[in-house]
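2.7 Reproducibility. Because tokenized structures are sensitive to small changes in the input, we list the exact sequence used for Riboflavin biosynthesis protein, including any N-terminal residues retained from the expression construct. No trimming or masking was applied before prediction.
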Amino acid sequence: MEVIQIHHPHQFKPEDFAPMTMALGFFDGVHYGHQKVINTAAAIAEKRNGKVAVMTFDPHPSVVLRRDIKHVEYITPLKEKARLIEQLHVDYLFVVQFTSEFANLLPQEFVDQYLIALNVIHVVAGFDYSYGRLGKGTMETLPFHSRGKFEFTTVPKLSNGHEKISSTLIRKLIREGDVERIPDFLGRFYTTSGIVIHGDKRGRTIGFPTANTAIDDSFYLPPIGVYAVRILVADNWYEGVCNIGYKPTFNETQAPKPSVEVHIFQFTQEIYGYEVVVEWHKRIRAEKKFNGIEELVQQIEKDKASTIDYFHKV
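Resulting structure tokens (single pass, no recycling of outputs):
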């Protein structure tokens, strides 16, 4: 897959690209609904013997359009989003730099400059996709704005039970720590990535060494507490128990941000500086302050047993 960064205004012309079927969306999470849009585009491209492309945007439009938002956390930051989209056998990923100038394009200008000018011959998007200034362009106006230059397919709402599959719902589940339910909508367990850093090394003194992981702050983090997780280290998955929090048993004052520490089962390697992936499976309990080391150790033993039991059953 070729990743093409586009800055507005761009200089591309139709002859720069082979005819493409284009999937449009922000695609945060690349969840089941997003996969349906992209897979629909891929199937159409295959029938037409053409290329399949995805267009997304960076950063999230709210960072540009809302003065009260300076930083956005994602289910899938851009690097992870690109990795997942590539697995869907996409030829081109267009990443449009979202700026106020780009946001001010009229719907017709967006279609002319970002679809027709890129040699798009078929557009696929979800039923609620909008484009152009103030989102005035919709899948209902697209036939008019297409000028007859391309065809289009609208993908209807996708639900699981009575709940619409959406990035908004998945973010809500992450915020509430309800990570067990996420695969029903995302198609996989939620993951975050980061670098293993040096911590206070207190865990090893009580028999539970941990990988202190500095999670990329572009990711949503589940709420503080103890979780059953898997962790990817050097292409190998391991089970473990993770604490997100402020370690109130040891710290009188709260740090600016919580630490993410994984006790990896049956693991003795030194992995400082490694990039790891944490896969969130189940929230075991909330974080709490204990009366001493002995009480804490007893609880960690229970957490470890609960986690081992969980993975034994799944």
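The chain has two domains: 2-163, 189-313.
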